[in-house]
Structure formats: C-alpha cells, structure tokens
Amino acid sequence: MGKLSINISIILFLIVYNGCSKRMGNPAEPNTATTWAQVSSGLINNNITSLSASGTSLIAGCGSGAFLSTNNGASWSQIDSGLTNTNVWSLGAYEGYFFIGTSAGVFLSTDNGVSWHKASTDLDYFILSFGFSGPNIFVGTNAWNDQAGFFLSTDFGAHWSLRNTGLPMWASVFAIAVSGTNIFAGTNFGVYVSTNNGANWTAANTDLINTRINSLVVSGSNLFAGSDSGGAFLSTNSGASWTSVNSGLASDVIYSFAVVGADIFVGTGNGVYLSTNNGTNWVSVNDGFPKSPSKATTYLVANVLAVDDSSLFVGTGGGYVWRRLLNEMIIR
Fold first, then answer.
1. How far apart (Å, rounded) are the C-alpha atoms in residues 167 and 161?
2. Which of 114, 83, 115 has its CA nearest to residue 101?
3. Cα distance between residue 130 and residue 139, in whole Å
4. Which backbone phi and psi does 326 adopt, to 5 degrees?
5. Fewer CB within 10 A of the terminal residue: the chain, N end or C end?
6. Could you tell me the fold of the domain covering 21-329?
C-alpha cells in the first residue's frame, strides 16, 4: 500500500464533498487552496492505490490503470501505452525511471510514463511494494503456492531472483524500507530484516509478530511501521525494539507515511496527521479534508501519500487525489 513504501488495504468509499467549496479555489489552479484542494480532473472514478512523485511528474495508480500529472495534479492524463495489465497496485520512482507493480508483474517507463514495457517475463506475480538500494531493485509480492514473496533484480527488472529464506510461509510483503545495509519487509506476520539483500531474513523482534504491517518508512535513524490494527510504531535501533507512537491519532489503522526532512506525515483510517517530533505526538492536518459519508465525524481513509518540493498529495477511494501545501502544515 505501501506504499503501500507502498501498502494495500483497499476500502472503496463514495466521496462526499464536505462543504469546502469556498476554500477550494479553481481546480485548475491548486495553488490557490488554503486547505486541501481536490486535484482529480481527468482521473477515472476508481480507488487510488498508489502515488509516486519524481521531479515535476506525479503518477497515480488505480484499478483502471495509471495516470500522469505534470502540473501538481491540476489535470491528469491516462498513460497506458504498453501497459498490458492495468490493475495497478504499487508504484516506484528511481534514478529517473518509473516502475508500476500490477497484478501480473512489473512494468517500466524510461520516458516519464509516456510509454511502458514489461520489465520481465519471469515475474508474473501480484506486486505490492518496491524498494531501491544502489543497483538493486526489490519487490514484495502477494504470497503464492505456500511461498513468501520477496524478489531482487540487479538489472533494472530484466531478471528476478526469489529471496525468501527465513520469511514465514504465506508472508505477503506489503512494504519495503531500506536503511544502509538493512532491508526491512513489512508483512502480515510483522517486520523482518535482511542484511544481505534478502538472501536471508529474520524477525526484527517479537514485538510485532503476527501484526500486519501496511507501511514502513525510514526517517533519519528512525524506522516507522504502520499496522492494520495497532496504529504506528517507532524503532530507533533498526527494528530490534518498537514503541507505540499513537498520541494524537484518531485511528489505529495506518496505511502510509511520507517524510519531509525531519517531519513525517501519516495516512490513516481517519484522515492525515503530522508529527514534527519523531512520533511523540501527532496533530491533525485535516482542515478541508473530506468527511466520510457514513460518519460525519470521521475523515476519509488516506490510502496513499506522496510528497514533492511544495505539496503533500493524498489518494483516497473513488478516484480522488487531494493536495495541500507543505508550508500550510509545517510551520517554522
């Protein structure tokens, strides 16, 4: 989903616009927003499963394909040329290249999403997450045939090798994070760590065993994990121990993280929150963010987050992307 780091727990919502029209400004001019602005023009109504920002390009993935914006989300165009599977579940950007993870393997673009080609014919699995380190590309997949799913490529996806020794049987890898020589995998059985590019894995510790981890992110020397029922967790020692960091959060379901310098945003089952003190406490940044149609006091699920130099983007159900300026939320 994932980010799903990509992390995937999909809940389809009917989006109800929550009385913020006077704050929104012209959708074609998202910079005029003083709170959250909906920036979804051109997106097909579908659940946003993944977002990735690189330079001036922003790509959104959903069940009906991939979409590109080069103007901060003011408009989107579908980018399916060469994409023979449009069931998109994860995205990655690395050294000027974009990667798409679908329900049938990895696709690669070398021209900012104008065209795609399947990276390899030997990886036809459900791609849930990406990770990058030097010449290495990692993907996490849905478990299949009694096997956990972690693969390594050293040639930009042309060939892949299965690297799951030590991962539990039936472990799906929802999130990948890289910190130095440590590779972390967030699975439905907790967090696992490898120090040899996935050749071998061990449980990071017993704190999060059998906890589904939707998302992982590295922020300086800190590692954050987002769970499906226990909220957010912080490790300051490469996963050897974990501390619950949920003060201020209004949801115990964590879908995604985004790091901006020393600050960190989190997408939850009840909107978006910000911590400027390594998770010691979180504050809501939901001014203008839409409410759930079924619960007037609950914000929409923030499935996926992406950040560029000036803005935070959030993908929600219904095929909507929302944008807010970073300097409205991070005040120095």
1. 15
2. 83
3. 5
4. -65, -35
5. C
6. Methylamine Dehydrogenase; Chain H (2.130.10)
